[in-house]
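Journal club prep, notes for RB
We'll compare a predicted complex against what the paper describes. Inputs for the FE2/S2 (inorganic) cluster case:
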Amino acid sequence: MKIICRCEDITEDEIIQKIKEGYKTMDDLKRIIRVTMGRCQGRGCRRLIAQILARELGLPVEAIKQPTFRPPTKPVPISATEDK
Ligand code: FES
């Protein structure tokens, strides 16, 4: 058992199973098993998942589209939004 996404505790076998079920993009995998959605936002697993997808689909790794990114927001004090 090889853990690929440590934040979400997802193994290589689980990823391969989902690819075989028809989830063939990074965004598909992100939505169905939450890979790249953990604390590190995919920094620890994104590249590995792209390599697994490429291998399982018989594509070059450059052909694997990266998932959609939404940078984390950070709290802003209310005073920063008030008109002065
Ligand atoms: S290792 Fe996958 S989101 Fe952090």
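Talking point for the session: The chain has a mean pLDDT of 91.
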